[in-house]
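ok so for the tutorial part 2 we go from a plain amino acid sequence to predicted structure tokens. step 1 is just haveing the sequence, like this:
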Amino acid sequence: MTDLPGVDLALNPEDVPFFDALDRGEIAVPWCVHCDDHVWPPRTRCVACYREVEEWRTLPGTGEIYSFSVVHRGDGVFAKRPPYVFALVSLDGGPTIMANVVADDLAAVAVGRRVRLAGPVVVESGRGGARFVLD
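step 2 — the prediction. this is what the tokens look like for a chain of 135 residues:
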């Protein structure tokens, strides 16, 4: 299994702190202090109480695979990278996000399997997404 390449993303301003945290090897999400819950996808206002989001919280960087797909035929910058795992990861204390799961053994990837953030995102160009390894 290989890591995915970076892509040129047109980020909204509210997305930048999430990707900056990934570059540091962390998972950070916007947090509504009034509802005491995450706001996902990132927004400037809480979808529950419509108050302004005042802080970002760093999560432990662990979670479990909610769903996944093994991609054998990628497109564009991903064409030379298969097979790779595209997954939805339910973060401990936070939302469910899209991510890449890096594993040497495809058979080891399963729904409910624990994962942890693989560390800082390093890509040749562009921005990289969340990358997890099996725990």
